[in-house]
Structures are given as C-alpha cells and as structure tokens.
Design goal:
Blueprint (H helix, E strand, L loop, with lengths): L5 E2 L2 E2 L29 E6 L14 H9 L9 E3 L4 E3 L6 E6 L7 H17 L3 E6 L5 H6 L7 E6 L19 H6 L4 E7 L9 H9 L3 E3 L1 H7 L1 H5 L7 E7 L21 H14 L1 E8 L10 H13 L29
Parallel strand pairs: 3-6, 3-7, 7-12, 8-9, 8-11, 9-10, 11-12
Antiparallel strand pairs: 1-2, 4-5
Length: about 350
C-alpha cells in the first residue's frame, strides 16, 4: 500500500503540520484541523526569521517556548498563586495548540500568508489568537488577519520602533511591522513602549510615526508614568492587540534575542503593564516574538516568557460576565479562568 505521505518523491503533507513536534503549549490538546477549532485560546507557532537583519535563530522560538511551558502544565487542578489569590490555567480553560504555520524559509510572502491563515482560523473558532514567533515580521500577517474584526489599537512593548517603510527594497522584515500596521484603516492607533537606544528607525521614521498618531514612550518615561499610567494613555474603550518583542526586556534577564538592547524592562514592569491593559480593555490578540533560544543557554527568558503569559490571563472568555460581580472579563489573554478583579 502506498505511503499516503509520499507520491513519488514529493512530500504531500507540510512537515510543520504533522504532529511530530515534541510538545504542545502547556501540554494542551493539539488541533490539526483548524476548521474544527472551538476554544477560548489558540496557540499558533510562527517559526519564521527570514525577516531578521542581524542575528537569526528566532525560528526556533516556538519549539523552545513550548518546551519551557511544560513547567507550568499543572493539569486540571491548575496552579494557585497566593499573591493574586487566583488559580491559573485550570482544566476549564479551553486552550488548544494549533501547531506551526507552514513556513517556506525562502519565501516571506507565502510564509506570512500561512501565518495569516492560522490567525484567521483561530478567530473563526472564537479563540483568542496567541502567536509565538519567529521574528517581528510575523506581526504583519497577524494584524492583517484582523481586517474583518473591527477597529483595534496596538500596544507594542519593544526596544525598537519597527516603523521603517522600506530599506533596500525590504518592506516586510522585522523593522517594518508597525509601519505596515499604521497603514491599516482598522488600526486606530499605536502605543509603543520601551523604545530606546539606537534604533533601526531613522529620525524621520519617528516623526512619521507621531504624525500618524503613535504614542512613543521610552523605558524611563514608562517607569515614570507607572504601568497604569502608560495604559491610561490608550483611548478608553479601545480593543487592544498586544505585541511583545523580548528585546523590550533588559538583556540581563532576557539574553535570548537577535537584537538585544541595554537598559530594558524587568519582569514586573511588563507583567503589570499587561495586567493593566487587560483590566481596562478587551485584548483581542497577542504575539510574542524574537525569542532566539541559542543565545539563552540557561533558559532564563523562556521561563519568564511563559510565566508572564500564565499570570497574565485570568478571566472569563471574552464577552461573558462574572457570576459574582456581573462585570466583564478583568484580564483577557492566555489565561481564562474566573476571577473577580
């Protein structure tokens, strides 16, 4: 009988869609058929780093993040946090892993189109899409997938502005995503936090970003405002998409990235910003990018990455209300258990 995976010498099933990856995120169920997604949260890997201009390696990010996430796979009982008085990731949280988008490492546009298809499938299944990169160019297809989802505001936590229009003919690399986002009619604004030091974006790019409504804050400016003060600058009622580049963090705690930049955020700086965003706004999507595990040999960043996500998401599914207080979701993201905030 002919092997169904082969026809002559042609591989018929995309390798990245075969259930051969070592682990799912948090040991949650793997959904191969994206048309059957019915979940609160859908994890999508985007192992693409051809948009990188310096150190590559972010293509290995999804695998390393999934591996590190098993530290927080507590099964149906979840995990109790005494500080927040909350049980994180109980069995009632319907989280699934979609596997990886199909990547053609020599073809940016095809790879981006496949990532976009994955995010659209997650949205069609009623899930919050959480995409693990990959370099920051993967944000471009993620945002494109929201073209029929209504207006969104982007909260970017990053060391770099990523607002380059074009350089050497490149318009879809990891220095371009916020510029491409600002061009979308349904992106109503950008809050860009953590921007510091010498950037890939020239002075004209900063001026252009501000002229298009970007609110740009350095690490020091963000700390002076405090996490809640930063989020208060986002227009009331905005539906927020969060994109986090790990180089937003200080490389002393997050060395595993291709473009480290000194003087970044510490863990609680970002966690409290994310919590404030979800307390005040509906969070409609998340991507986490530029994890390059080969530069993080003791796995510091991968555990920070996963712990941030586990603590961030503690809420009811979007659109529902709390039985105890009648309010809508307090924190919306990867963790969807019931907690009154």
């Amino acid at each position: 009988m002919e092997n169904p995976f082969w026809a002559g010498n042609t591989w018929q099933v995309p390798i990245s869609r075969l259930p051969l990856f070592e682990k799912t995120f948090g040991k949650r169920p793997y959904v191969e058929d994206w048309s059957t997604i019915d979940a609160d949260v859908a994890i999508l890997g985007a192992p693409f780093d051809a948009g990188t201009q310096w150190r590559s390696g972010a293509r290995f990010g999804p695998r390393s993040v999934r591996e590190a996430s098993t530290l927080f796979s507590f099964g149906h009982a979840g995990a109790y946090d005494h500080e927040d008085d909350a049980i994180y990731l109980p069995g009632s949280v319907r989280m699934i892993d979609m596997g990886d988008a199909d990547i053609v490492h020599t073809d940016t546009m095809k790879s981006h189109a496949n990532i976009e298809a994955g995010v659209r499938a997650a949205l069609a299944g009623g899930a919050l899409p959480v995409t693990i990169g990959g370099d920051h160019s993967i944000n471009i297809p993620c945002i494109k997938a929201f073209d029929d989802q209504g207006d969104i505001h982007i909260l970017q936590i990053d060391a770099h502005l990523d607002f380059v229009d074009e350089r050497h003919g490149v318009r879809y690399g990891h220095g371009n995503p916020m510029r491409r986002a600002a061009e979308k009619s349904y992106v109503t604004g950008l809050t860009q936090v953590g921007i510091r030091n010498v950037s890939s974006t020239a002075k004209e790019g900063y001026e252009d970003a501000r002229s298009r409504g970007s609110d740009i804050l350095s690490v020091r400016q963000a700390r002076a405002l405090g996490p809640k003060g930063v989020i208060d600058r986002i227009p009331r009622g905005a539906r927020v998409y969060i994109t986090i580049d790990i180089d937003a963090f200080c490389p002393s705690i997050a060395p595993g990235t291709g473009t480290p930049s000194h003087g970044g955020f510490l863990y609680y700086d970002v966690l409290e910003m994310m919590q404030a965003a979800a307390q005040r706004h509906e969070v409609v999507g998340i991507d986490l990018v530029e994890v390059a595990p080969d530069y993080d040999h003791d796995c510091r960043w991968r555990h920070i990455f996963n712990f941030s996500r586990a603590r961030f998401c503690r809420s009811a599914p979007r659109g529902s209300q709390c039985d105890q207080c009648g309010r809508g979701p307090a924190w919306v993201s990867v963790r969807h258990d019931w907690v009154c905030a």
